[in-house]
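Our preliminary data section would be incomplete without showing what the modeling component actually yields. Below, a chain of 371 amino acids is followed by its predicted structure, encoded as C-alpha cells that our downstream tools consume directly.
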Amino acid sequence: MARRGSGEGGIFQRESDGRWVATVELGKGPNGKRLRKTVYGSTKRQVQAKLKTAQDARDKGIVTTGGNMTVSAWLDQWLDGLDATAKLKASTRRSYREVVDFYVRPNLGHIRLARLAPEDVEKMGRRLAEDGKSGNTQRLARTILRRALGQAERRGYIARNVVALTDAPAVKVDERPVLTPDQAKQLFDTLHGDRLLPLYVVAIHTGLRQGELLALRWSDVDLEASTLTVTGTLDRKIRQRTDPKTDKSRRNVPLTPQAMEALQLHQVRQNLEGTQGSYDLVFTSARGTALYDSNIRKHWHRVSSNLGLASMPWHNLRHSAATIMLAQGVPIEVVSRVLGHASIRITADIYGHVSPETNRQAADAMAKALR
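Predicted structure:
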C-alpha cells in the first residue's frame, strides 16, 4: 500500500520501490478530461520541493493543459471553431485553411502543442524561404499561426504564444508593372466599341477590385451624385455575391467624368440589348449573365497581348489606378480610402516606393516653403 503524508494531499510513497510521488491538478484539457502532472523523487523533501515548483508554475500559467494535443489537432479545432462562429467571410476561412494545409501543418503539425518552441516557428520560416515562398507568404503563415496560438493561450492549452517571441520575416515588395496614363489611354482606344470598355474605364479610374466590379449593381451607382457604393464582391470560387472583403471595403467612391460617361453609355447599350439581367448587374455578358474571373482573364489576355502587356495581370489595373493617383499628388490616406484598404499602412507598404513623381513634389514643396 502507498503511504500518504498527513495533510499533504498528492504526496505519497510507493511501497514497490520506495520512491516518493506527488501529483498536481492542472485542470481540464481540450477534450474535457482532467489533467495532472506527476513528479518523483528519492526523498519526501525532494518531492515536496518539486511539488511546490509545479504548483507555482501552474498558478503562473507556465504549466499548461494542452496534454498530448498536436499542433495539427489544435489547428483543426481552431479552424472548425471559425467555421462554426462564421465571424469571418467564407472566402477568408478558406484562405486560412489553405495556408494552414500548405505551409503550417507540413512543418509544425507533428509537434505537441505544449512543446512548440520559437525555434520551430523560425525553422518553418526558413523552410518556406528555401522552398522559394515569398516573404509575404511567410508572413501570412506566421500571422495565421499566431492567431491560432493566441486562442490556445487564452484557453490555457499553452503557456505562451511562441510566435510572438520570433521576428517577422522581411517582406520584399516586388515591383509591379503598371500602366502609365498614356498606356491607359492607349488601352481605352484599343477597346473602342468593345462592350467591356466601361469595365476597364471604371477599373482604372476607381481602383476597384475585380470582384467588386463584377458584383456592382446599378442600384449601387448614383449617376446624379457621380458616385458608386461598394456593397459586395463576387467570390470567384463559389461564384456568389458576398459581403465586401473588410469593413473598410464597404465604401463610397467618387466617379470621374470619364467614368460617368462610360457608365451612362453602357447603361443605354444594356437597355438596347436587353442585357441588364435579373440581378441588376452593371457588367454582364452579351446574354445578360454574370461575368466571372475566367471571362475577364480570357478577355484581358487577348487585349494585353495586343498591347505588349502580356506579363501584366488584371489586378495590376488596380495598382495602376493607385500609382496614377499618387503621381498626381493625391494624399496617400485618400488613396487608401478609395482603394478600401483596411489601414493606411497597407497602402504605404505597397505603394510607398512606386511614386518618384510624388517624392519630387514633396521636395519641390519643401523648397518652396523654405525659400
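The CA atoms of residues 128 and 185 lie 41 Å apart. The chain has three domains: 3-59, 71-165, 181-321. Preliminary results of this kind motivate Aim 1 of the renewal.
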